[in-house]
Amino acid sequence: MAVGLHSQSSATVPLETPRAPQQRPDILLVTIDALRADHLSSRGYGRLTTPAIDAFARRTTQFTSAISQAPYTKASMASLMTGLYPSTHQAVTATVPFPETMTGHVTSHAIATDVLPSSATTLAEALHAAGYRTIGFTANPFLIADFGFAQGFDRFRFYPGPDFARAENLVADLIDEARSNHTDRPLFAWIHLMEPHSPYTPPPLTAGMFQPTGPPEPIEQQTSIPFWLLPGSPRDRRAYVAAYDDDIAAVDAAFDTLIRGFRAVRQLRENVVVVTADHGEQFLDHGGWEHGSNLYDELVRVPLVILAPDTTAAVVDAQVETIDLFSTLLELANADIPDNPGRSLNALLHGKGAGRGALSEIPGSQYSLRQDGFKLIEFNDGRCQLFDLSADRFEQHDVSSANSTRVARMRAALNARLNEAIEMRHRVRGESAPVDPAIAERLRALGYTHR
User: Fold this and answer.
1) Beta bridge partners of 137
2) What is the C-alpha to C-alpha distance for residues 96 and 100, in angstroms, rounded to an integer?
3) Cα–Cα dist 398/376, whole Å
4) Bridge partners of 367?
5) Which helix (H) or strand (E) holds 405?
6) What digits encode the pLDDT tens for the residues 167-177?
7) Most buried residue, 59, 168, 387, 426, by most Cβ within 10 Å?
8) DSSP H/E element including 31
9) What is the structure's pLDDT at 1?
10) What pLDDT, in 10s, does the model give residues 321-363?
């Protein structure tokens, strides 16, 4: 595909002393949890949900077909942070090892889960080796030091609490931390914001900003509604979408504060800024709620905007993967790039190059390949679905039976990509670690019961 151009807990991690840095840009990586691409107003959504992100994006390179490697946080963020597919890094388990999340009863014995392997080089580790000071702020209970996500960070903080910490709290602390960085070292700052993840409880600033519009969309009585999504569990789909959009507006306001504050305290350095999401969100699009259960585009197609030095504003239609950010950011930092299946997007940032097929996974359950305007989804029982995205962008019509040749070709390509990912496991050693019962209970309380 050709390029289309349209002009609160904390941890301090002891690390080896980095080599002397050259003049390198600061890097700000903003990941927004559960933000589906088609709910950004800059992508044609009918509500003005993201005026600040839109204004920022108009000065950047916007990627319209960015695909996450998994439809849930732990696996997708492990991929983004390592440049490896889930089948390689193996940090993929969400709720299965947590009996609490399935039963509501806290166990007295130790629980274990797979974690981001220490043998995998993370983005923070590679940037630290290149001379960066590295800081990470997250409010997602899967993105914690116990699960391996603090690797490479000089300063790492997870924000606990009865509910997800508000974006404005993380933003204020990150700006303060950036302000206090008085050394000559460039800064890599990662912030993971939880709005608009469920429950859909926007702050007063944006609560009620968007009201349900159009005719009612009643939810059939046999369709269950997770009780934590919205108080009262109304049986009108529009109420959930409106509250979700309120939450998007809240994170957009926090982003505005972040980008203004970061520039103010780091104004003497060039900046690289990336805004993306770990996955999307579903509202019965294919019969489900939230995320993690399938590989349709409402869950794996994510926003991606990149501001980089010496680039001009553009919209790129070429398909990319979020694992590509690993090599992209290391190249922009003039850092060493470990071998990985991702590829740098810097050619696309300068109007050159082409897209490629995108692989997404729910390891052991479903795998998809998005290629040449089609998407193939293969299930572990051998079934498959094929969608012509140019004619059916909402993936409602399976055309596999009428396209057996294309199905065979795409299945072969999908299996080849998966085999390569599995072969790369020799580079990493899958690891597990016990989970603090308090963390397991927090995961249960926050609604991780959908898988």
Assistant:
1) 157, 191
2) 10
3) 10
4) 361, 378
5) helix 404-423
6) 999 999 999 99
7) 387
8) strand 26-32
9) 34
10) 999 999 999 999 999 999 999 999 999 999 999 999 999 999 8
C-beta neighbour count of 203 within 10 angstroms: 16
pLDDT digits (tens, 9 = 90+) for 87-130: 999 998 865 333 333 233 344 455 668 889 999 999 999 999 99
- Tell me the two tokens of residue 380: 């572990």
**Amino acid (one-letter) located at 75:** A
Mean pLDDT of the region 154-179: 89
Assess whether pLDDT exceeds 90 at residue 274: yes
pLDDT at 111: 60
Q: Which two tokens stand for residue 193?
A: 């914001």
* 3-class DSSP assignment, residue 176: helix
Q: Which two tokens stand for residue 89?
A: 């890094």
Which uninterrupted H or E stretch holds 376?
strand 374-379
- Tell me if 437 sits within 8 A of 146, measured CB to CB: no
Q: Is 324 helix (H, G, I), strand (E, B) or coil?
A: helix
Q: Tokens representing 362?
A: 């729910």
Domains, the chain, in order of start with CATH, read 9-445 (3.40.720.10)
d(CA 431, CA 179): 36
The sign of the dihedral angle between the CA atoms of 121, 126, 128, 134 is: negative
Residue with tokens 């005026």: 51
Q: Label the pairing between strands 358-362 and 155-158.
A: unpaired
Query: Mean pLDDT, the chain, as a whole number?
Result: 88
Residues 70/79, Cβ–Cβ less than 8 Å? yes
Q: Are 91 and 296 in contact (CB under 8 A)?
A: no
pTM of full prediction above 0.90: no
- Residue 390, CB half-sphere, CA atoms under 13 Å: how many? 5
- What letter represents residue 132's amino acid? Y
Smallest CA-to-CA distance from 325 within 67, 144, 138, 135 is with: 67
- Whether pLDDT at 165 is above 90: no
Closest residue by Cα to residue 111 from 446, 443, 437, 431? 437
- Residue whose C-alpha is closest to residue 384's, from 356, 412, 357, 358: 412
Helices (H), 18-141: 51-57, 73-82, 86-89, 99-103, 123-129
CA distance 153 to 136: 7
Tokens for 378, please give them.
Answer: 């293969």
Q: How far apart are alpha carbons 166 and 174 in whole angstroms?
A: 13
Phi/psi of residue 305, nearest 5 degrees? -130, 140
Helices 73-82 & 324-332 angle (0-180, nearest 10): 40
